[in-house]
């Protein structure tokens, strides 16, 4: 299983793969932790959704939408702290292109 990931991601060593997993773990946990304080900071509380139909679902979806940009920024920051910027920058560009943000990464074409 790990051999396949190493080949797919172009990772040479098990140590680098371990560091990549650590970066993903820290980023995921931290972005989920930061979402609630950010929502509270901008004035959105879960009890405001109590009276709405599907209010809990709406709040959870909003929280996920808040987590997404936090995750993207933290991924690059934490990757840089672990000396994995190059890997994660390429990973980030690939993911963002797949979900429709390819306009952010226009390839420079030579004439």
How do you describe this structure in short?
The chain is mainly alpha-helical and 111 residues long. The protein has helices at residues 2-9, 14-41, 55-81, 85-98. Helix 2 crosses helix 3 (55-81) and helix 3 (55-81) packs antiparallel against helix 4 (85-98).
Number of helices: 4
**Helicity, as a percent range:** 55-70%
The tally of domains stands at: 1
Low-confidence stretches: none
Mean pLDDT: 87
Content of β-strand? under 5%
What would you call the shape?
Answer: elongated
Number of strand segments: 0
Structural class: mainly alpha
- Rg, nearest Å: 18 Å
The biggest beta sheet is recorded as: none
Termini separation comes to 42 Å
Written as H for each helix and E for each strand, in order along the chain, the element string is HHHH
